[in-house]
TrEMBL record:
Ranges for domain CobQ/CobB/MinD/ParA nucleotide binding: 4-116
Protein name, entry field: ParA family protein
Domain of life: Bacteria
Organism of this sequence: Phenylobacterium glaciei
PANTHER family (UniProt xref): COBQ_COBB_MIND_PARA NUCLEOTIDE BINDING DOMAIN-CONTAINING PROTEIN, P-LOOP CONTAINING NUCLEOSIDE TRIPHOSPHATE HYDROLASE
Pfam (any one): CbiA
Length: 220
């Protein structure tokens, strides 16, 4: 099983949006995917309970139970466990990091978000976990080139010592409309720009976690 934690020190960066979209896109490929909603606000659950498959897709949990949930999910045949955490430093972020094969730190491309993300990066590194930074809610690219604000903040975070995903998610109405309907953008607008972004992100995350199941098996 691959376990991915989506986290950030700053609220509203897009953790739930990323977790929900990754879970739905990964499941559509045939992987037995579960989204662990570890945020007491239950935003992921609020969106996903509209779905016919919500009983098998989402589990409401807490930081304290993540270790046990990951163990039971792995034994129960789950292929992918995606953890949505709440914003802020005392939010169970460390518990999520400890069970994750990959930590995705979601950041908006603003000064205050980047400052907070550097703290997230620091904890991921100190715990010795594999991680990456994902930029979300970015302004549009011009002729395929990221805006100066996005490329500048990417550079700052690269110097923080964690890989930065070269794919940044842009601000798009499709993300908001899809989640309001309990859908991923891959379902809401197949062939659209947000669909392409999530497809690219999924491929990237799959590449980063390709060895995870093999490593786990070797350690068992
Ligand atoms: N790429 C995007 N384009 C447009 N809107 C977005 C995008 N990403 C997130 N949003 C919107 O921004 C708001 C915050 O997103 P979301 O709830 O996913 O963030 P979060 O990090 O989970 O927040 P919290 O810290 O409160 O859990 C939501 O209204 C969401 O629909
Ligand atoms: Mg959230």
């Amino acid at each position: 099983m691959k376990t991915i934690a989506v986290l950030s020190h700053k609220g509203g960066s897009g953790k739930t949006t990323v977790a929900v979209n990754l879970a739905i896109a990964w499941r559509a490929l045939g992987a037995r995917t579960v989204l662990a909603d570890a945020d007491p606000v239950r935003s992921a659950s609020d969106s996903l309970r509209k779905r016919a498959d919500h009983m098998s897709l989402v589990v409401e949990t807490s930081a304290a139970k993540l270790d046990a949930l990951a163990y039971v999910s792995g034994k129960g045949g789950c292929d992918v466990l995606i953890i949505d955490t709440s914003g802020g430093p005392d939010n169970g972020m460390i518990e999520a990091m400890k069970v994750a094969d990959l930590c995705i730190a979601v950041s908006r491309p603003t000064y205050l978000d980047v400052a907070a993300t550097l703290r997230t990066v620091d904890i991921v590194r100190r715990l010795g976990r594999q991680g990456m930074v994902l930029f979300n809610q970015c302004p549009p690219r011009r002729n395929g080139v990221e805006s100066a604000v996005v490329s500048g903040t990417m550079d700052i975070l690269r110097r923080g010592g964690l890989e930065v995903c070269p794919l940044a998610l842009q601000t798009r109405a499709a993300y908001q409309r899809a989640i309001a309907q309990g859908q991923g953008v891959t379902e809401y607008e197949p062939g659209g720009k947000a669909d392409a972004e999530i497809g690219g992100l999924l491929a990237y995350v799959q590449g980063k976690t390709a060895g995870a199941a093999r490593d786990r098996a070797a350690n068992d």
